[in-house]
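Re: the request from the purification team.
They wanted to know what the chain is likely to look like in 3D before they choose a buffer screen. I agreed to run a prediction and write the result into the notebook, where they can find it.
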Amino acid sequence: MECIQLMKQCWNEQPEKRPTFEEIFDQFKNINKGKKTNIIDSMLRMLEQYSSNLEELIRERTEELEIEKQKTEKLLTQMLPPSVAEALKVGGTVEPEYFDSVSLYFSDIVGFTTISAHSEPIEVVDLLNNLYTVFDAIIGNHDVYKVETIGDAYMVASGVPVLNENRHAAEIANMALDILSAVGTFKMRHMPDVPVRIRIGLHTGPCVAGVVGLTMPRYCLFGDTVNTASRMEATGLPYRIHVHESTVKVLRELNLGYKLELRGRSEVKVLYQAIKISANGPRAADGRDSPVQETESRETTTGTTCKEEKLSISISVAAADSKDVKQVFHKAVKKISHVRVMTQVLQAPEEEDNVMMSHH
């Protein structure tokens, strides 16, 4: 009789008045008290256990899925800027962008080839991993974006892809000073007595940025600003920050206490001849600009440097004075083969200050 009443309750047209599985199971236990459990009781018990286990299993799997999703998103944002990564996750395309003013950082290890020659491959990998782990921890404290590492070269940008007005120069400069300070105490595991010396170059200017490739896509920067920043690093000195005049101008406008010292004049393989200035370590600025002598830098029709322009002039004079035109022609071709003809023609500024920088 009790079983029939229980069945009628389960058939009630109003769902809220129907007993739950737990209540049904309890009533069956009371009905069959002292008797052997039948197949219905076993079925109800199995259904109850399965329902409880299924809910717990779904909760655990959902948590595991959320953790893995966070890991994937973190890895993606480490490879690409967050704004670019979000666009790619939703299936969108990232169009190339032109930036009027960004600041770039280049550095490499002085004597890396010699260090590699006296080290095992695994030791070289260990060196770069330890050094760049220190660098990566530093750049997390600044508004910058790590573009890439190629061998011992380390490239960082500020003001791209997220604009930060003219603070990009200060962010890059502060980061460079922090990195330079950290390298002073860095030791190689397999060569603890050999100091790790780095050169640093900074430059500010326009560039184009965009995502390149579908497999392992990279956020890359293009333009003469990138080339010039690399040249500033290549022509710098160990334990010094070699700063281009364009970066110097922004830093002086910010007036944050950077001291910039004139290094001297030398040639850089870019679209113009530049004056370089050097920087020692951070001190309070005295507010006076370093004296810079003006250098003539005329643009040629082929976009070559001043040195190349002088070479072309000397060839034309030789041709005018020689009677053997064929011989002069061959000499000219031989000399021109050493001339680096640039693919772009840009207006060369009359004066370029490249400096070494320091800051308190």
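For the purification team: Residues 2-79 form one domain.
Please add any questions underneath this entry.
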